[in-house]
Amino acid sequence: MIEERRKHIRAKRRIPLKIADKNFDIITDTADISTSGAYCRVTRLLPLMSKIEVVLLVPVKGNENQTKKIKCKGVVVRTEPIILKNTDKAHYNVAIFFTAVPKKDQKLMEAYVNHADVREEGIEVEEEADI
User: Is-above-0.70 flag for pTM?
Assistant: First the structure.
């Protein structure tokens, strides 16, 4: 039996995400998110342990039409090439571990990920491991 190591709730939610370093900017959406990281699809290979800047547009609890921009630092901890039919571009699923999130934004992310609507909408909720 596999022992569960996740410590933070991870919710399958799509929110806008920008990944950047000094050489590129990538705009995408999260596939899932937690207070400690995000999982998304990109069209550029991001090497493991790449240090990146991350900008998330997190919906404000109680008002899904309003968003808060959260800027944080992260590191790429997993990159998986994927094959998609009908495209000539490479695609990768990428896991990002947040290394620095401002305290006030951490609380907003917790409220978003732990929000009751996440469970009510039938969205999978999993516990996430510290990386």
Answer: yes
